[in-house]
Amino acid sequence: xxxxxxxxxxxxxxxxxxxxxxxxxxxxxxxxxxxxxxxxxxxxxxxxxxxxxxxxxxxxxxxxxxxxxxxxxxxxxxxxxxxxxxxxxxxxxxxxxxxxxxxxxxxxxxxxxxxxxxxxxxxxxxxxxxxxxxxxxxxxxxxxxxxxxxxxxxxxxxxxxxxxxxxxxxxxxxxxxxxxxxxxxxxxxxxxxxxxxxxxxxxxxxxxxxxxxxxxxxxxxxxxxxxxxxxxxxxxxxxxxxxxxxxxxxxxxxxxxxxxxxxxxxxxxxxxxxxxxxxxxxxxxxxxxxxxxxxxxxxxxxxxxxxxxxxxxxxxxxxxxxxxxxxxxxxxxxxxxxxxxxxxxxxxxxxxxxxxxxxxxxxxxxxxxxxxxxxxxxxxxxxxxxxxxxxxxxxxxx
Length: 398
Ligand code: NAD
Ligand code: USQ
Hints:
By secondary structure, the protein is an alpha/beta fold. The chain has helices at about 15-20, 35-40, 55-65, 80-90, 105, 110-135, 190-205, 245-255, 275-285, 310-320, 345, 360-370, 385-395; strands at about 1-5, 25-30, 70, 95, 140-145, 160-170, 175-180, 210-215, 220, 260-265, 270-275, 295-300, 305, 325. It contains 13 helices and 14 strands. The chain is globular.
């Protein structure tokens, strides 16, 4: 299949592009490299050294004999270039990773809130509008987030995208319909993913655009079978207080002897998936595009749920580390339960890798190898959700 990978220079996009290429798909990456500039803005670098896009593509050609194309386009703002590319490529599928993906980055200040909404919604809207304008039958595979469901403790296995509701009309007769599961975003970033869902719902109904929305959990791990084939193919690894996600951060913290940063009670339960499963899920979603017509297909792209405090204990016991609890910079529940269905991806053949598979030790090895690239000053999370959270962390003097 001809596949465009928007955001293909990023943490999930790069290994997914390689995996699709390895499996015979004709891949072109579209990325404006803004994520690399965010590292400069934040004064931090990926734990792992990452090659430039041209070095990455050359290395992949040398190890696989396969070509990957690249277009430097800002999908959110350069609509005309996006249309030209779609018109010439006429892709069977577009995988859309090209959004600002950090919750703390999205909550830093007004400029970052505005950037996140502007970038994420315009990227999604531009892509869909361009596909409709060109009359393409391209299947869009979008990366959403498990966080759109929110973290209420209701003893339910979260369904995949929709909730069937029944309600009485004026005569008392009952009606039933599927609605998007009510969203409860916990950050401006998660809000942007909730709003994306409405764009997809509208354009699928109005124009018949075929969309799969993958509600992905927190991705952990770094390398995949493809990125391991050459040091120039190495994937990025974020550990800093803005872009680092919880389990990967704990592994790096353990590797450099920094006490694990558990926010608040650590009672938050979240959904997780290993990056090796992410790339497989993306391929399964792309290759099953013919199934999609009419209603947006939502699949929960997660394989397990864990409580933050349990993860900290596991990392501390496995790798040896001190566990610290720090005042939570985020406005979020101290504690929640979470369980979700993932039948659709299992039905397509996903065989989940779980945390117990010994990959944690391999991650720690990578972290130790590049420990000298870690700037411990960048570890604390300093993006506060609101004034109360800032005061709770920094005290009344601020
Ligand atoms: P990332 O920041 O590493 O990659 C995103 C890529 O998109 C970057 O290379 C960036 O330069 C590019 N990009 C952003 N805006 C763009 C624009 N306007 N035009 C062109 N390129 C643009 O993020 P990631 O971790 O790879 O996440 C990819 C997607 O998956 C995101 O949509 C994210 O919300 C979703 N997701 C990620 C995780 C996770 O744990 N990393 C979990 C669930 C969902
Ligand atoms: N946390 C800690 N200590 C840390 C970092 C985080 O206790 O050092 C806690 C947070 O307070 C939060 C939980 O761990 O309760 C998860 O935080 P995270 O930064 O690992 O994940 P999150 O902000 O939810 O965002 C990440 C990705 C995002 C994706 C989302 C999937 O950055 O792109 O959408 O995971 S989900 O969480 O399912 O919505």
